[in-house]
């Protein structure tokens, strides 16, 4: 049976995933609106091009009407020529006609300009329409993609919700309330301890706190950020000093309790040193040295993986305990190690 803390670690993973999914789902309308806005601007470019063409047509028609009325005016002037009495009047009439003809030329030039503008507007319209067509296809694709992602998010969210609820049922209510409170205020509530530090706030734990977290007999809060702390032995076998060739330059040692060895488990030290992996085990009940293996060109994490998998980290202050007590661990050392194991 997993402990409450282990359940909380899983619950947190589920709750964070659920929050992520819900945030994604909540963002869908905004995404759709954003996609639609792209289409709206493409559509506006088409409408603008059409409106400009329409304005040009209107201008052209107005100019044509002006020309028509000027032609009528000229005809009228010519009709008046029979009633002319003198040279002065004749000159005035000719001047009126010349002026009207000048106006006609001006309007014809304007029409030519409008027609040239019209040609470039037609090209703009064709380009805008093609862009709108492509944009429509793209928008449809994006919308479908968004909706598809939304549908799969909804399924995942429903599953996560159900999993969260079922995990919550198995956890102590007070602890669950604490978890929810920290989760709400701090983003996440459960933090792993790696290399003596709370991984959430990087606070270095006091040895006693670290030892309590390792023993996992009660729920321990980080002194700095208040999160609930947990510890995984497999993340705490040091690997930092291993270089690219996989060989550690400095001796790294880690004491662990391995339940599968000895009469009722064994206290085992794993040492990576100068490319060699050493495992030395003492029976947890008698303290007697029961096994010693040295593997050349190996590291403990790999070569002793099966022993380490079920192991629990121990806190040992003294550096070379295994050299000092080659055959037998003394009672006070045994007592100290046994105290770090969960009762029962
Ligand atoms: Zn912390």
Short structural summary:
With 344 residues, this protein is α+β, with helices and mostly antiparallel strands. It is built from 9 helices and 8 strands. The site of zinc ion has 9 residues, from loops.
What fraction, in percent, of the residue positions are helical? 55-70%
Summing up helix and strand content along with how strands pair, one would put the structural category as alpha+beta
Q: What's the total number of strands?
A: 8
> Which segments are poorly predicted (pLDDT under 50) over 5 or more consecutive residues?
239-250
Query: How many distinct helices?
Result: 9
Q: Ligands bound here?
A: zinc ion
The spatial strand order of the largest sheet comes to 7-6-5-4-8
Largest sheet report: 5 strands, antiparallel
Secondary-structure element order, as H and E?
HHHHEEHEEEEEHHEHH
Between the first and last Cα atoms, what is the distance in angstroms? 14 Å
Give the overall form. Answer: rod-shaped
Average predicted confidence as pLDDT:
89
Radius of gyration: 44 Å
* Beta-strand percentage range: 5-15%
Please explain how this structure is put together.
- The chain is of the alpha+beta class and 344 residues long.
- Helix content is 59%, strand content 12%.
- The strands form two sheets. The chain has a five-stranded antiparallel sheet, with no helix packed on it. The chain has a three-stranded mixed sheet with strand order 2-1-3.
- Helix 1 packs antiparallel against helix 3.
- The chain is rod-shaped and about 150 Å long.
- Zinc ion (ZN) binds next to loops.
């Amino acid at each position: 049976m997993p402990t409450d803390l282990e359940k909380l670690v899983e619950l947190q993973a589920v709750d964070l995933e659920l929050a992520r999914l819900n945030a994604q789902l909540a963002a869908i309308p905004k995404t759709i609106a954003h996609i639609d806005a792209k289409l709206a601007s493409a559509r506006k470019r088409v409408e603008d091009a059409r409106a400009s063409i329409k304005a040009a047509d209107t201008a052209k028609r107005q100019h044509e009407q002006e020309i028509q009325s000027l032609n009528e005016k000229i005809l009228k002037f010519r009709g008046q020529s029979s009633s002319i009495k003198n040279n002065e009047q004749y000159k005035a009439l000719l001047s009126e006609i010349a002026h009207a003809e000048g106006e006609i030329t001006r309007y014809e030039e304007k029409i030519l300009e409008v027609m040239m503008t019209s040609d470039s507007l037609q090209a703009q319209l064709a380009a805008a329409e093609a862009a709108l067509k492509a944009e429509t296809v793209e928008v449809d694709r994006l919308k479908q993609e968004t909706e598809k992602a939304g549908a799969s998010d909804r399924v995942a969210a429903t599953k996560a919700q159900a999993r969260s609820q079922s995990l919550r049922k198995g956890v102590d209510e007070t602890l669950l309330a604490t978890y929810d409170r920290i989760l709400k205020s701090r983003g996440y509530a459960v933090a792993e301890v790696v290399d003596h530090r709370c991984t959430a706030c990087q606070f270095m734990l006091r040895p006693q706190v670290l030892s309590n977290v390792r023993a996992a007999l009660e729920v321990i809060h980080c002194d700095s950020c208040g999160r609930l702390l947990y510890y995984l032995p497999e993340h705490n076998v040091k690997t930092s000093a291993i270089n690219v060739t996989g060989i550690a330059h400095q001796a790294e040692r880690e004491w662990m309790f391995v339940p599968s060895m000895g009469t009722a488990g064994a206290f085992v030290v794993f040492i990576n040193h100068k490319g060699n992996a050493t495992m030395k085990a003492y029976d947890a009940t008698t303290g007697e040295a029961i096994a010693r293996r040295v593997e050349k060109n190996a590291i403990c994490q790999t070569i002793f993986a099966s022993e380490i998998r079920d192991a629990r980290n121990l806190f040992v202050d003294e550096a070379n305990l295994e050299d000092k007590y080659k055959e037998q661990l003394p009672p006070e050392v045994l007592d100290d190690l046994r105290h770090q194991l969960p009762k029962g």
